[in-house]
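We store sequence with structure; for instance:
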Amino acid sequence: MPYQINPDRNTPWNGLPQLPLDPALYETIEVYTQLGNAKAALGRLQGRSIAIPNQGLLINSISLQEAKASSAVENIFTTDDELYKAFSEQRVETLQGAPKEILKYREALWTGYDHLKRNETFDEAYFVSIYREIKELKDGIRLPSSGIYIKQGGSGPNAGKAFYTPPRGPGIVEAKLANLIAFVNDDKKFPVDPLLKMGIGHLQFEAIHPFTDGNGRAGRIFNIHYLMQKGLLDYPILFLSKYIIDHKDDYYSGLAGVTQRGDWKTWLLYILKAVEVTSDLTYYKINDIISARDNILQAVVADTDIARPELLVNALFTQPYIKVKHLTTSGLYAENTARKYLDELAGMGILEKRNIQGNNYYLNLELYRILGE
């Protein structure tokens, strides 16, 4: 059966087909070859990450980079310095601009994670909670009367015109979201490989476009949570948005290919390649972080009399910028001791002490370098 496309970009796609898809739309040798590559890379990443005793070394730093990259897809940019400094303050409510939006994405990542731990399955409330966290709003599914559409980007003659118009009308968005939720939750009724189901689910969510804003970021958070829900990741450490921002035109072209031509094959090849490449990227970042951590710990033990050196070095690798208060509020050291130790490590060249607007920050140079690569 042919896939029903949306022939008019200015008309709401109320005919968006229900899931599941006809397997003939994507079951090809190319797709299954790429699926095998993606599963192998993701399995290697999962095996490496669960062997690490201190997950805090990865969760803060890599999830922060994922938040930055996903926000960049939506043209929300900031520098690493601004972002890491903002994160080190741990007061999102006082921030403004891009750093705040990025840290709200990261908080949404954990909001969704906590929701799934409590409820075990995806539901409408899961998606609404993510949207509300990202946008700092209290509403939910967009109203039937909302005239939302996706605009053409760039500066050409079509800039600002409709690129795609999602479905709308009384109960239509809710019904299509309910179908998506049933598809991703029920593996007995819909026995599709988890990576293929993630790719299909992501595009369907973007096509439904249930919220007035933040749909792209919510959909990318769903990708990570779905992999975790299926036991393919233990922690939200896959740097998936890095691939999307590096291949942004192909991302939007893949989405449009489905809505305009029913081309699911190209889209699934794209998202499976993203999983493969970013699994490898994250795997090597983990190795680099652990190696740097071990080397610094060895130097601290050999060349200083610092008490509880392993706990201190672990703390240095939970975020690039650290302050005295991070060591005191955790109960690791008294204030004077914490300041003395951080200054000592700065003198050794392990940290770089920076005074920013009257506040002292200590930059972990190796972690900063690894995350920026």
Notes: The longest strand covers residues 351-356. The radius of gyration is 22 Å. The chain has a mean pLDDT of 87. Residues 304-372 form a domain with the Arc Repressor Mutant, subunit A fold (CATH 1.10.10.10).
